[in-house]
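Mods, move this if it's the wrong board.
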Amino acid sequence: MKRSMKKLVFISLFCLSSMATFSQGGGVESIALAAEDAGLLAKNYVNPFVKGLMYDMNSGWYTTAKTHNKFGFDFTINPSLSFVPNSEQFFTFVPGDYQYLSLPNGETQIPTVMSDSEHETLVRVSIPYEGGLQKVAEFNMPKGIAGDLPMNAVPVPMVQVGVGLFANTDVKLRLVPNVNIADEFNFNLFGLGLQHDLTQYFDVEKSLLNVSVLAAFTNMKATYAIENDIGYENVEVNNGEAEFKMTTWTIQGIASLDFKLITFYGAIGYNQGKTTAKMKGEYILTYDLESAGGVPIGEISETIYNPVSHDFTANGMRGTIGTRLNLGFFKIFGDYTFQEYNTLTAGIAFSFN
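Not the wrong board. Structure tokens:
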């Protein structure tokens, strides 16, 4: 229970940063038993959560196409929720994609981290060894965590500041200095955006219709200390760490109708994101030795280092519609983005022109 709660805390923290955990069941370290197959198995399991984070991080940059006057500024709090398609709550186990893995219970579908399934899939590892023997182990793939997250979606709250500086251009900053919690969770984040007014180049009524263009990127790094799972003796971990490095960028054209009490805004653009995930440290793995006929012979231990390293990508077109209620300098807003993982963003802002 304690380990599960710690991992849920990490997921919550990654509402500000990155992805959570490969496991709530046998322990994140157990996936190292999959040898060369560990990277692909981990990638398939955590992929929808990582992609959801990348779509979240490209959201919430604006609530109007209108830029600030010089030295005008805003402070915005804008949580986003990216909805994982039902088709990505499970992934298909294709035996030919793996060298040493099988599902002894005959299953073909494994829950991803963003499934609401309580099922833990048993995975069998069988690696050829000298003299015709086999190194054998079993572990449970973890269940999904979607039921513990709001609306079965990947959440990311974001805080940003925007300032009007030059040529009808706003500079937007997202910054979280390095945060360390209990010597187990670390994350930092930096994002920079530029929103430039295009209305100034056309003969239109600026007080009502505004058009602008936005370009923005966000970098984030997060780490989670991997500990030995009490009661799981097949893997011993020294200096274990899960590390996630994420970079996203977006470019969008924005239009808005800015009335005194209400603003209607929309945008169309393009997203791109890349995440590198690594499982680092020293892992002492214990396998059963079996004969070709499956007769137990004994045990064998071996040590490996940094067993997982994989890249994730997310990219594609996006379209956003939204509205903002203007109560003087206080704003309340919400918008919805249509993309591979549709995303809902809502929040508040304090804006001074």
